[in-house]
């Protein structure tokens, strides 16, 4: 789960920092509308991102773990707080903080994993 959660957070952090999609491993097929982005990648993972005002709703399916997950993000200026839960009962909380071209990410989960990592638009994570 730690890798799947980190990938999810990494994707969100990069999305929030307006990083180019070309840095993600493997191509994904996406459909987009005004408020919704839905994608399926080459490994069979699926996710959607829906925005309503300053709230971002993420839903997805992790192929490797065979589980569904949901995450809600609330944005307050340069700071985004998030909470999530998966079908196996794991829950997580954390935040992303944007400082210039850098995003500082921190999370912890009920499964015992936690991390703090920094991403930059020029150098990646």
TrEMBL record:
Signal peptide residues on this chain, from the entry's feature table: 1-22
UniProt keyword terms in alphabetical order: Signal
Protein name (database record): Glutamine synthetase
Organism encoding this protein: Pseudomonas ekonensis
Phylogenetic lineage: Bacteria, Pseudomonadati, Pseudomonadota, Gammaproteobacteria, Pseudomonadales
């Amino acid at each position: 789960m730690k890798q799947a959660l980190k990938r999810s957070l990494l994707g969100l952090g990069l999305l929030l920092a307006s990083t180019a999609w070309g840095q993600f491993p493997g191509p994904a097929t996406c459909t987009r509308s005004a408020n919704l982005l839905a994608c399926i990648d080459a490994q069979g993972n699926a996710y959607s991102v829906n925005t309503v005002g300053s709230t971002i709703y993420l839903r997805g399916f992790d192929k490797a773990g065979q589980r569904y997950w949901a995450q809600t993000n609330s944005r307050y200026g340069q700071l985004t707080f998030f909470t999530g839960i998966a079908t196996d009962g794991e829950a997580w909380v954390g935040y992303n903080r944007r400082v210039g071209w850098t995003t500082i990410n921190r999370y912890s989960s009920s499964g015992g994993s936690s991390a703090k990592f920094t991403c930059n638009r020029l150098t990646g994570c």
